[in-house]
Amino acid sequence: GPCTECSCSSGKKTDKNTSNTKKKENGDQSFIPKIFFGTRTHKQISQITRELKRTAYSSVPMTILSSRDYTCIHPVVSSSIGNRNEMCVELLEGKHGKSCLYYHGVHKLSEHHALQSAHRMYHAWDIEDLVSLGKKLHACAYFAARELMVGADIVFCPYNYLLDPQIRESMEINLKGQVVILDEAHNIEDCARESVSYGVTESQLRATREELDFMVNNNIRQKDHEPLRAVCCSLT
């Protein structure tokens, strides 16, 4: 029979206040968890969403969390080989007198998917589908995907979006009481190691040591800087 707990059984539009709740007959509200589906690569997300289209749950509201490397459609930022995150933030803050036209059109994308859901025309989609639609509507696919998370029953994302606390915080992901599925979970160890690892060059270590020498020699928080200097010395 049809589902009774998720929105695929109802074509009604959900909003931010009711997306995770379902009213009981007595007027109380019970929490309904989202499903967070984590994969190792973005390519695997494409495979999963393709399979989702073939099931009876293709109409369930969903979203895909991805980096700006895959979803940014700004012609300058997306073609840059530099740090796209920093460039995006600069545009959002209006530095150099420039802003992002596509960010201001985010509502076009989120409302488009909400409209489809309301008319029972909602279908599972892939990152490429969202980016293509974003280009057509001149709307940012990156922030639209984040907005769609509010009303989504299934959220697809790479492992590190679920494992890395900094990314979880920046993406406003709260896993308490949610359903978490990790595809090919034997890869979790490597992903966890990468999340807490950082690479530096020898020249960077030497430059850091010189700065710490300056701090210590000028009596600037010696107790804090001397142990750090010792670490740099041992590494070099």
UniProtKB/TrEMBL annotation:
Domain (Helicase ATP-binding): residue spans on this chain: 1-232
Residues that span the membrane, as ranges: none
Keyword Nucleotide-binding: yes
Biased composition (Basic and acidic residues): 12-26
InterPro entries reported for this sequence: DinG/Rad3-like, Helic_SF1/SF2_ATP-bd_DinG/Rad3, Helicase-like_DEXD_c2, P-loop_NTPase, RAD3-like_helicase_DEAD
Signal sequence bounds: none
Taxonomy, superkingdom: Eukaryota
GO aspect biological process, one term: double-strand break repair involved in meiotic recombination
Region (Disordered): 1-26
A single GO cellular-component term on record: nucleus
Thylakoid recorded as keyword: no
Keywords: ATP-binding, Hydrolase, Nucleotide-binding
One annotated GO molecular function: DNA helicase activity
Pfam families: DEAD_2 (PF06733)
Protein name according to UniProt: FANCJ protein
Species, as recorded: Phaetusa simplex (large-billed tern)
